[in-house]
Write a structure and sequence with these properties.
Layout: H1 14-48, H2 52-80, H3 82-101, H4 106-134, H5 138-169, H6 174-177, H7 179-193, H8 207-229, H9 234-254, H10 270-300, H11 305-311, H12 313-329, H13 335-353, H14 362-390, H15 396-429, H16 438-446, H17 448-455, H18 460-500
Helix pairs in contact: 1-2, 1-4, 1-5, 1-7, 2-3, 2-4, 2-8, 2-15, 3-4, 3-7, 4-5, 4-15, 5-12, 5-14, 8-9, 8-15, 10-14, 10-15, 10-18, 12-14, 13-14, 13-18, 15-18, 16-17, 17-18
Length: 508
């Protein structure tokens, strides 16, 4: 269905707006769970004594499962009922949060985090699709989508703050219990405030498609994540290659069955295709930049994880402001021009971050990144709204899941690819002191964190020379990554006009 053919329906009332609040809170908690465990890891490690491999799985398995199950859960909601799936997911998320909080072994916590990811994958696509059902008026829907998107980004702000407060007074498991009262609220208020919607013509879920999607997506996300840490891991390359091949089989099957898990026909719609591409590539630029900036704060400037997280709050706030601004502007201006202007401003922000040096420190970095994140804000909220407007109502859940999976994959790919580029620049520009021992030199060449670990074992003069060189080399890598981000944003601004210009203002 063409976007301009979708008629506006009755305006939403108090019940729908209360329903939006009920939908938005769990999305905020999903976002919090992405970041809050980084703060809890030292306390958790002291209590459960996980190995280094187990620590990585504790951190990563949640994101792996969300990315892997988004497509399945989005389509499942269209078939069994979006509200029903949302409530089932909320109950499971609350129960798994309790399980994670009281885990007494690394294996138990890894399993709980995996189940949390699967449950979390039910909430985002069902919630976004329900917004499309609840808000038929284009102006109201754009505002509702912006609020929903803003809550996801709000988790990036609340995560470090709430985690720091809880860990100052309670044990590490308390960070998981944040979700329990919110999910209880959703279970109580959801049946009252949220409508049910399912596709009356839906067929049974194709189990083979589900299996192929998981067997394709999970190894790809795992491979990309591991390669971002060490590009020389053969196991990660095997996983990535195998996942790509299986996902190709998945796409082939989707093109041949009547009711696919991934609706390829959505990509024939120019507006959907453009919004999806923008989400994918902007997410990649954002993911790679956040990785490098966090490392800069924690290594070059020597900040703690909490302090570094708090310095990322201003960019997140800047994005929240422009996410809210996008729908208001879209009432009179075409979304294509708003998105393109924002991305152009974002490109200027990334350019400003390249003025960061070891001596200048925070101001150009945080100000530039805040401008970049402000630039991406309008496109985020308007992009999801365009996706809902472009998709036929019966597959809105699948459309939402496809867009969200694209954004998740973009962030993971950006962390891996741009992180690898930043590391390569660091290695080529690092000048090691002539007197540094070989083991310390090898460790310093691996990464900037390795250089700081090796420096503690060296005499003061050699240590200072190594740290100065490592800081300068890493800053060069940061410049390269943010320059790539600026180029990507400028190119995406042109793409936004080319692909989205048919979408009318919401006020028309």
């Amino acid at each position: 269905m063409d976007i301009t053919d979708r008629p506006a329906t009755a305006r939403a009332g108090r019940r729908e707006w209360l329903g939006l609040a009920v939908l938005a809170l769990p999305i905020l908690l999903i976002s919090v769970d992405f970041s809050v465990l980084n703060l809890a890891l030292p306390n958790l490690a002291a209590d459960l004594t996980p190995s280094s491999t187990e620590q990585l799985w504790i951190l990563d398995i949640y994101g792996f499962m969300i990315a892997g199950f988004l497509l399945t859960m989005g389509t499942l909601g269209d078939r069994v009922g979006r509200r029903r799936l949302l409530l089932c997911g909320a109950g499971a998320f609350g129960a798994c949060s309790i399980l994670a909080a009281y885990s007494d072994s690394p294996a138990m916590l890894i399993a709980a985090r995996a189940l949390l990811g699967i449950a979390g994958a039910t909430l985002a696509p069902s919630g976004l699709a329900l917004i499309g059902s609840m808000f038929g008026d284009p102006k109201q829907r754009a505002t509702a989508v912006a609020a929903f998107t803003g809550c996801f980004m709000g988790g990036a702000i609340i995560g470090p703050i709430a985690g720091g407060v809880l860990l100052a007074h309670f044990w590490w498991g308390s960070v998981f219990l944040l979700a329990v009262p919110v999910m209880l609220l959703l279970l109580i208020a959801g049946p009252i405030l949220l409508p049910e919607y399912r596709d009356p013509a839906a067929s049974r879920l194709d189990i083979l498609s589900v299996a192929l999607s998981l067997a394709g997506i999970l190894p790809v996300v795992y491979g990309i994540t591991e390669l971002s840490r060490d590009a020389g891991q053969p196991g990660a390359w095997i996983a990535l290659t195998g996942g790509v091949l299986v996902f190709a089989l998945f796409l082939l099957r989707q093109s041949r069955i009547r009711r696919p898990l991934l609706e390829l026909r959505l990509f024939t719609n120019r507006i959907f295709r453009g919004a999806f591409t923008l989400s994918l590539l902007a997410g990649a630029a954002q993911g790679g930049s956040i990785l490098m900036i966090n490392l800069y704060l924690q290594t070059v400037l020597g900040y703690s994880t909490l302090r570094a997280g708090l310095w990322m709050v201003p960019p997140a706030l800047a994005m929240l402001v422009t996410i809210a601004l996008g729908p208001a502007l879209a009432r009179t201006l075409r979304p294509a021009y708003i998105t393109a202007a924002g991305l152009a401003i974002g490109a200027l922000g990334y350019t400003l971050t390249t003025c960061t040096t070891v001596e200048t420190g925070l101001p150009p970095l945080i100000i530039g990144f805040a401008i970049a994140m402000a630039g991406i804000g309008p496109g985020m909220s308007l992009g999801y709204d365009l996706i809902l407007r472009a998709a036929p109502p019966e597959i809105a859940g699948a459309a939402a899941a496809t867009a969200e999976a694209g954004g998740q994959f973009g962030v993971a790919a950006g962390v891996a690819l741009l992180g690898s580029i930043g590391t390569a620049v660091y290695r080529t520009t690092l000048h090691l002191p002539a007197t540094i021992p070989s083991p310390a030199a090898d460790q310093a060449n691996e990464s900037v964190t390795g250089a700081f670990a090796a420096a503690h074992q060296l005499p003061p003069t050699v240590r200072d020379d190594l740290l100065d060189s490592a800081r300068t080399a890493f800053t060069s890598g940061l410049h390269t990554v943010t320059t790539i981000g600026a180029i990507m944003f400028a190119a995406l601004a042109v793409l936004a006009i080319a692909e989205l210009r048919q979408a009318p203002p919401t006020g028309k």
